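Thread amino acids onto this structure.
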């Protein structure tokens, strides 16, 4: 669909270095895959914006999600970008530039290297509106060691439905 060229360097971790405006402010990195997630998290972003002690960094995976995020949240976020490739050098560079105090993942964003970086830095991760498709659930069930690796790095999981809750519970959450 295009739309990546302008900020494609974000995929490799090249976000602009963020300087905190205040030591009292906590930086929250929110990852929302596409337009649907960007729209779904609007109440959360508006609530966080009402707080004076946080700053929001929002990343998306798709070009359409990125475009929608810029349209809706440019005025209230400290940065909007494309989520980095989940490969150590790209993820590590993004983490060193963003330096979040907390990470919020929307729906099903379980990226191993991203979660590893959070764990290594002692940054809590929250999965909101958590979902597991039939396919993802079957895959994680088959590779239970991977499911455990991912789930152990998440502070709290807030499921979208009872089915999702049961699936995450079955995987050890």
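Threaded sequence (173 positions):
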């Amino acid at each position: 669909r295009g739309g990546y060229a302008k900020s494609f360097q974000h995929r490799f971790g090249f976000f602009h270095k963020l300087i905190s405006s205040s030591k009292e402010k906590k930086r929250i990195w929110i990852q929302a895959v596409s337009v649907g997630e960007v729209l779904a998290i609007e109440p959360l972003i508006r609530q966080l914006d009402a707080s004076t002690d946080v700053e929001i960094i929002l990343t998306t995976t798709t070009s359409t999600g990125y475009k929608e995020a810029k349209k809706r949240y440019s005025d209230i976020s400290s940065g909007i970008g494309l989520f980095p490739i989940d490969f150590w050098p790209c993820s590590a560079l993004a983490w060193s530039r963003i330096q979040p105090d907390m990470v919020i993942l929307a729906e099903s964003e379980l990226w191993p290297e991203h979660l590893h970086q959070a764990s290594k830095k002692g940054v809590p991760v929250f999965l909101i509106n958590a979902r597991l498709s039939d396919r993802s659930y079957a895959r994680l069930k088959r590779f239970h060691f991977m499911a455990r690796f991912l789930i152990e790095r998440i502070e709290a999981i807030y499921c979208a439905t009872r089915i999702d809750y049961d699936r995450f519970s079955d995987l050890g959450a």
